[in-house]
Amino acid sequence: MDNFVFNNYTKIIFGKGCENDVGREITKYGRRILLHYGGGSIKRNGVYDSVLSSLKEAGAEVVELGGVQPNPRLSLVRKGAELCKAEGIEAVLAVGGGSVIDSAKAIALNALYDGDAWDFHARRAVPKAMLPVGVVLTIPAAGSESSDCSVITNEDGFIKRGLRHDCMYPMFAIINPELMYSLPKEQIANGCSDIFAHLLERYFTNTRGVEFTDRMIEAAMKTVVNNARAMVCGTADYDAWSQVVWAGTIAHNNLLNTGRVGDWGSHNIEHELSAHYDIAHGAGLAIVFPAWMKYVMDHDVPRFVQFATRVFNVENDPFDQKKVAKKGVEAYSAFLKSLGLPLTLAEAGIGTEKFSLMAKQAVEIGGGKQGNFVELREDDIVSILKIAAK
Amino acid sequence: MDNFVFNNYTKIIFGKGCENDVGREITKYGRRILLHYGGGSIKRNGVYDSVLSSLKEAGAEVVELGGVQPNPRLSLVRKGAELCKAEGIEAVLAVGGGSVIDSAKAIALNALYDGDAWDFHARRAVPKAMLPVGVVLTIPAAGSESSDCSVITNEDGFIKRGLRHDCMYPMFAIINPELMYSLPKEQIANGCSDIFAHLLERYFTNTRGVEFTDRMIEAAMKTVVNNARAMVCGTADYDAWSQVVWAGTIAHNNLLNTGRVGDWGSHNIEHELSAHYDIAHGAGLAIVFPAWMKYVMDHDVPRFVQFATRVFNVENDPFDQKKVAKKGVEAYSAFLKSLGLPLTLAEAGIGTEKFSLMAKQAVEIGGGKQGNFVELREDDIVSILKIAAK
């Protein structure tokens, strides 16, 4: 196991009705609040009203900025940061999923920064501080509610870039799975795919002596596999939802990568897909990750065997480990398919025309490579995209 | 799953050589430091020198208070709190295991309190704040390095009482498993028993819909079972040590009881044993917990079957679930025995003479009962002690 520092200070407030605590929590950091949200679904499902009523009750002065799109855009971040400065905002409240939270973090960073809003994500500036960010989570998936990450898309060139820094943990995250029941089926499936992919990125490591985190990741993966279908079926099954949503937060709060180096190649390849084609992140991952697995499997067959046997209960065959490893990938794909997710680029309507461009952009951000479990160059990424094609 | 709030702000600094960061970390909270430790083993194994050198380098002004005993005593807490007040101490650094950390927390609480030092643990006063506490962990087990708990023994009546409060998390915990290699075999075994017991207390719950935390607890239990023997054998196996030590911290940082109510009956029964007989906590738990399991098993046989099959790989027998459940308890006892731990009160030289007194004192603190999975009254505790007797 590698040395590590782990310090996640996000306060998690989890369960039925907990959104009514938001006013009390956010006003601990100031009265001037930027309320940040997406396309307006929170106005239809009642979350907006609950949140606003709690804010008013706590004496908050609310400035609103809606309109966050999936793959959140730099232009809105710019607008938000200017608004914070003009309005003397003291804290940002994100009500939404990963896109809204990532946008809120970028706004909160830039509210305290006078340079260009793309500087941080473009690695031209290092974050020092951000306005306090609070979260009311309405989509399970991104894990951004208690992570140090923000992923933003710059429309100028369709560049999607992730940024992480210690100062980027939200102060609190309010998580009531019941607020998520009304999500469209596809979005639930995408969320489950994203959670599972966060676990996989951590799982595939070259670090030895990591039995504890291996087993914790497997615990989370099994939980997602056992419960995701009930969520997608729209059964309003609190037991199923609460398990996956809590696993989704833990999947991305850095606990499960303590002392180990994860991969992250698939995520960065997928970022190119969704930047160029605006495909949902979870759907993109459902296409890219199995292809990545097939491409890199020979690097460490035992790890794939462990994945297959422990997570998907594939029976071990000591005489044909590769077969067992492959069955694990098949089981993962079958799980994704059971949620209604696309398994190929063709199914998602994505052609081969931008493979080279996307591979080039993906390695650009990694200094000529992507991934840690196996280092991928441009031609490797093109090969993975070809496997993913159909 | 129950609603919950989870907010553990202890910064974990884990790995080889990390004790050299202690000066920099603790002086973030002030220069006047109380250095608190136990019987002097840290002077023999070099930890004291490393810590003191790091403190001096960071410009700390150090006041020392050693002499913490296992089952840490109130008298030393009193002395430490007075010392903090007299010396204008700004932060307390605990270098040791659970006893030293628990003592440090009690001192840090009472340093800011003018009433009697037993008030908090006796439930006559509620904590509001404590001096910042930092930890250099030298014994894996108690989990106190990132928990909100402190257990203190009042010599006046041999009363051992646990206390927990949100303000009682240490600011940081420095954890280098290499510092623990020189521990006596018995102490390592006691530590592993204590870690496993912390997991069991959380595992045995009546809360439904807790698959995720069930699986996370099982992940930690399997990790302890697979690696504890190598630690006790003195193999200086970093992979084994680092897994169990990290699992030991997570076992007790409240993550694994999110959304569920644990039991804690066995811990409170054991507190009486070690208060009256000064038996090591881990050894006491090795005696009490299997006895508790036998006594309460019929309350929820399926949970015991899950424990047996998932943690100890007992083969399921759908036609005789009770047999499977019993085999789980046998496997747990065999594991404890393999570490050299006592399995009966007789082996520990403890007779039957105080069963009634200990049962009475144990339920006193719980308002007439102990335990949540099964509520135990005085006569239940006497019955459990009788099972544990030989």
From TrEMBL, chains A, B:
Keywords: Oxidoreductase. SUPFAM superfamilies: Dehydroquinate synthase-like. Pfam families: ADH_Fe_C, Fe-ADH. Residues 10-177 form the Alcohol dehydrogenase iron-type/glycerol dehydrogenase GldA domain. InterPro entries: ADH_Fe/GldA (IPR001670), ADH_Fe_C (IPR056798), ADH_Fe_CS (IPR018211), BDH-like (IPR044731). It comes from the Bacteria. One of its GO terms (molecular function) is metal ion binding. Transmembrane segments: none annotated. Residues 190-387 form the Fe-containing alcohol dehydrogenase-like C-terminal domain. GO terms for cellular component: cytosol. PANTHER family: ALCOHOL DEHYDROGENASE YQHD (PTHR43633:SF1). This is Iron-containing alcohol dehydrogenase.
